[in-house]
Structures are given as structure tokens and as C-alpha cells.
Amino acid sequence: MLALWTLRALCAGALGATGWRLGLYISHLSSNTEEFIPWGLASTLTGLIIGGALVPYLILKPWRMSAKYIDSLPGSALLSGTAGLLVGLVVASLVSIPLYTLSGWASWGVPVVVNVVLGIFGLGLGVQRERDIRAIFPGLEAPTLSDEHYMGSTINKAGVTSNGNSWTGKTDKVKSSGSSRNGNILVDTSAIIDGRIADLSITGFLEGSLVVPRFVLDELRHIADSSDPLRRNRGRRGLEVLGKLRKDEGVPLQVLDVGVESGNEVDAVLVQLAREMKSSILTTDYNLNRVAELQGVQVLNVNELANALKSIVLPGEELRVNIVQEGKEVGQGVAYLDDGTMVVVEGGRRYLNAFHDVVVTRVLQTAAGRIIFAQPRGG
User: Fold this and answer.
1) N or C: which end of the chain has fewer CB within 10 A?
2) Which residues on adjacent β-strands are paired with residue 160?
3) CATH homologous superfamily, domain 150-308
4) How far is C-alpha 77 from the geometric centre of its chain's CA atoms?
5) For 289, how many CA atoms within 13 A lie in the half-sphere containing its CB?
6) What gap in Å lies between CA 111 and CA 236, rounded to an integer?
7) Which residues fall within 8 angstroms of residue 262, CB to CB, at 6 or more apart?
8) CA 33, 35, 39: angle at the middle one, nearest 5?
9) Which residues are registered as beta bridge partners of 43?
């Protein structure tokens, strides 16, 4: 607030003095004498009002917009753009040396035009070569997603390394607004193997781009090459899911060229990468879910989504179920709804392997899912 009023006072004083001199000049033109009243007083008051009320907003708003835009740019873009601007101005100065010998306004007008044109050209060229600056200084910034390309960088604390290969895709630029999400979703190995993300992404319920780090692909490949038939089949199914997503043009999927140093856990690196990129994590791993939430990373758990989408039943409702097995307690029977929800039927053992109408008595929600307790109708 103090800075604003200081700026108001400076602008009002500057424009007031300018108005005073302008009023005296107008008075001299009209009557050949410099009289403060009325022209000097009117122009001074006008300068004070304009300088105190209007000029600060004309200065502060563009300044804040420029500062916000510069703050959103990665460090490599600022460095490469500044270097390109300096090179352009140096070349323009050398080219302008013989132009100063021109006569008239051209002696200063042409060099100014040359400096502006070559400066802008150098700035644009420097921004275009941002990837070279990022390759020279890999630790300049944390990994971010740009609109058209990404060059892998290094996160020393998390043990993430990259070989500098580029990848392309449709993504949203990361803003430094402090938001926990930026429209990109990091995909965990467990979610890929689970397979349900393919149908979920195709339906369009996931907003943003799916980003698969290279170390997740490496882990998936190791699982697919396992000697254990079960693990090998799970890994191959995960690769098939990624292939399905890659072929679907409606699902934005990118591979982030970031690796893991030896001795670092994949889950820890994934959480650190999500924090640096301000992205969410898509997973089915319960432990990863809890660790990520403790570190302030938003987690999209496919299992929690599936539980939330299961049919809702209330005590007193009637269901017709197929009792397929015995329960843990004496006389209990167990059935399953179409969405996989377990229904425990008290006294349902005698209806084993048969359809029967039951009445819901209570519903129990657990971390593993929803369990419905019922009893035979009329029992």
C-alpha cells in the first residue's frame, strides 16, 4: 500500500510539474506573457489528477502482467531468450556503425530500426534454441511439461535422471500458481497392469493428459520378462493396455523420458516427480496412495472410483441373488452383485447354488469395498 501511494505521489508530482510548464507555455503563446492563471493552474490540476489517479494503473497492471508471465516461464527459456537478445543487439550495433554516416534523420532512424529488428530476431532465435540451453544446464529447473515438447532434466533429490531425448504431445503448460494440479496425470505401474484405465480414459472421464515416465515403462518391461508366468502375463497385459491407449487418438498419452538412479525406489521417485510437476498420480496401489497424500500429492485411485460407482442399496430393499458359496459363519451363504459387491446372506446356506430373493439388513463400508448383509425374504 505504501508503494502504491508513493507511486501516486511521484506520478502526480511529475505530471503536475509538466502541466505547470505546459500552462505557462500556452499562456505565453496567447498573450506573450507567462501567467499562472488560468492556463497554468488548469494544466497543473489536470496533471495532478491524471498522475495520481490514472497513471499508476497504467503502470502497475502491465507490470504485474509482465511479472506473472515471466514468472511462469522456465529458467532455460529466460536464459536462452536473454542470450539471443544480447547477440542480436551486438550484431545490430556492428551493422549500424556505417549507417551513422547517413545524412539527416536516417543517421539515427535507420540504426534504431536495425537494432529493434535484429534484437527481436535474436530473442526469437534464442527462445527456439531453449532445448540446447536445457541440455547444457540440466539442473537449471525441475522437469516441466511444455506445449509442444519436453526435454528430460535431472531431479537430484529424488534420484531421477534423463538422457535428454525429447517427446511430443498435447499437454498443458505448468503454471507456478501453487496449484496441486496442472492437467497432467502421472500413471503408476499398478494402474497400467490393472487395465481399467483404458476404458476409463476412452470414456472421457479423465481430464488431462496421461503421462507415463520411462522408469514406469522399464518396471513394466521387467515384469513382462519375469520368469514367473503370473507376473509375466500381468506385465504383458500392461503393455497391451498402453498399446490400446496409444492407438486411440482421443486419449492424450505421452512418455516422459525420465529414469531412476540405482538404489532409488520407483514409488518415491514417482511421488517426487508429481510434486515437482504439480501433477496427480493415477494408481491402484494402496500404500502409494497413502504416501502420496501425506506429501500433498493428489491421487486418483481406480479402486476408490470403482467403489464409489457401485450400486447403492439401503436396508429394507429386496434383491434377487445367486448364492454361490458358504460364508464364514454357520449357515451363511455368499452371493455377488454384477459389480462384484459381496452379499452375505444369513441363513442362506440352504439356498446354495440357487437364486433367491433376499432383504437387505445393513450395509458395511470397508477399506476393501462394500459388504451387504441380507436375509432370505420371509425368513
Assistant:
1) N
2) 155, 260
3) 5'-nuclease (3.40.50.1010)
4) 18
5) 13
6) 65
7) none
8) 115
9) none
The answer to whether the beta carbons of residues 212 and 253 sit under 8 Å apart is yes
| Residue 175, all three cell numbers | 503454471
Confirm if 346 and 332 have CB atoms less than 8 A apart.
yes
Q: For residue 346, count CB atoms less than 10 angstroms from its CB and return exposed for 0-12, middle for 13-18, buried for 19 or more.
A: middle
Domain 318-376 matching CATH 2.40.50: the answer reads yes
Q: CB atoms < 10 A from the CB of 94, how many?
A: 10
Task: Tell me which long-range contacts 219-228 makes (C-beta under 8 A, separation of at least 24).
Answer: 219/189, 219/266, 220/189, 220/192, 220/193, 223/189, 223/193
Which stretches does DSSP call E strand in 246-312?
253-256, 259-260, 280-283, 299-301
Q: Which of 336, 317, 324 is nearest to 375 (CA)?
A: 317
What is the model's pTM? 0.46
3-state secondary structure of 374: strand
Contact, 304 vs 287, CB < 8 A?
no
Mean pLDDT of the chain: 76
The 3-state secondary structure of 196-246 reads HHHHHHHHCCCCCEEEEEHHHHHHHHHHHCCCCHHHHHHHHHHHHHHHHHH
pLDDT interval class at 29 (50, 70, 90): low
CA distance 160 to 39: 70
Q: Collapse the DSSP code of 294 into the 3-class scheme (helix H, G, I; strand E, B; otherwise coil) and give the result.
A: helix
In this structure, what C-alpha cell is assigned to residue 364? 458395511
Q: Which one of 59-63, 96-100, 256-260, 346-350 scores highest in mean pLDDT?
A: 346-350
CB atoms within 10 A of CB 367: 8
The H or E element spanning position 90 is helix 75-96
Residue type (1 letter), 25: Y
- Bridge partners of 212, per DSSP, are 255
pLDDT at 341 over 60: yes
In which residue are the cell numbers 520411462 written? Answer: 214
Rounded CA-CA distance 27/38 in Å is 8
10 Å Cβ neighbour count for 329? 9
Other CB atoms closer than 10 Å to residue 115's CB: what's the count?
A: 17
Query: Could you report how far apart the first and last alpha carbons of the chain are, in Å?
Result: 76
